[in-house]
Amino acid sequence: MIERVRAVLVTADDTMLVIRRTRPGIPEYRVLPGGGVEPSDASREAALHREVHEEIAGKADIIRLLYTMECDDERQLFYLARIATWSFDDRTGPEFSAEGRGEYALEEIPLTAEGLDGIDLRPVEIAHVLRGAIRSGSLGVEASL
Predict the structure, then answer these.
(1) How far apart are CA 102 and CA 21, in angstroms?
(2) In this predicted model, what pLDDT tens digit does every residue of 11-50 receive, in sequence order?
(3) Omega into 123 within 30° of 0, i.e. cis?
(4) Rounded to whole angstroms, how far apart are CA atoms 46 and 59?
(5) How many Cβ atoms are within 10 Å of 6's Cβ, its own excluded?
(6) How confident is the model at residue 92 (pLDDT cuts 50, 70, 90)?
(7) Contact 4/35 with Cβ under 8 angstroms?
(8) 136: CB partners within 8 A, 6+ apart
(9) List of residues 6+ apart from 141 with CB closer than 8 A
(10) Contacts of 84 by beta carbon, 8 Å cutoff, 6+ apart
């Protein structure tokens, strides 16, 4: 089974970092930073740290596993994390040099139901999970401040 890790990266201003994907012929959408777990990764959390470093040159403090989604032969694990610094200009991931992959732009959006309603966050399941957690007050980011 293929495993992928993604992070809901919450900033000090209680915004969330997302990557805006623009590809020819496809409507613009957003994804959370992350990617595949590689055999050389010591753990899923280590894979997440590596991916956050590659994609946004940042260092995240993982709070907890937020959600797991399985579909066919793929499992995606979504972690809630705090991030203080990042530099999209210093990203190093292989996807940025691959031809035909489209554009990756970093954005901060309000971590509110309204903020989520204003974007097409994929997969749609994580958008629903986040909206529900925000509305119920169960996201749990406050405890880590």
Answers:
(1) 7
(2) 999 999 999 999 888 999 999 999 999 999 999 999 999 9
(3) yes
(4) 11
(5) 23
(6) confident
(7) yes
(8) none
(9) 10, 14, 63, 80, 82, 111
(10) 11, 12, 59
CA distance 17 to 10: 7
DSSP secondary structure letter of residue 113: H
Residue with tokens 């089974």: 1
Q: Which residues contact 21 (CB under 8 A, 6 or more apart)?
A: 28, 29, 30, 31, 102, 103, 104
Model pTM? 0.90
The H or E element spanning position 52 is: helix 44-56
- Strand, coil or helix: 109: strand
- Length reported for the chain: 145
- Hunting for tokens 């694990």 — which residue is that? 77
